[in-house]
Amino acid sequence: MRMQDLQAIARQAMLDKGLLPDFAPAALKQLNAITQPAPSGPGIRDLRNLLWSSIDNDDSRDLDQLEVAEALPGDACRVLVAIADVDSTVAVGSPLDDHARANTTSVYTAAKIFPMLPEKLSTDLTSLGESQDRLAIVIEFTAAADGSLSSSDVYRALVRNRAKLAYDGVGAWLIGAAPSPCRPSRRERCSTMGS
Asked: Which of 9, 17, 71, 176 has the most CB atoms at less than 10 Å from its CB?
């Protein structure tokens, strides 16, 4: 069977399940008007100085989460998780938002991927790519040694991914089968990994 045939079958399966395999003309028009990442503004915390990292597959470009942790006195730990603030670029109720809401996820088939958001957004303008300044929603909490939470907060912030890590490289490093996945040029930024 030809790839074209498989793609047609996948597209029809999307339609049969009530999903949207294609972006509507209004969504594509909205996409064309988006030319840069959302700017920072008042009330946005600047957390670009933290040692944020992402972890995903080796070839992933649609990075939607970063994390950083800090040891505190008394064996407590401060954890921050940053989620890409797509809402700052794709307004609620807009054509692109309507498409994303209808599908709720990217749909992966053997023949074709049907993305929830166009790649221009998911792999570039809203992606938390390495060395890129991006807006994010940050979930911050402090956990005591026994796992209890002593504080938590949610807020918007400007972040910068300092290390794009991959599962295979980190896994091999954790079991002692490979060197640190941090490149020499960013070794100082990764020096706290595993501490």
From this structure: 9
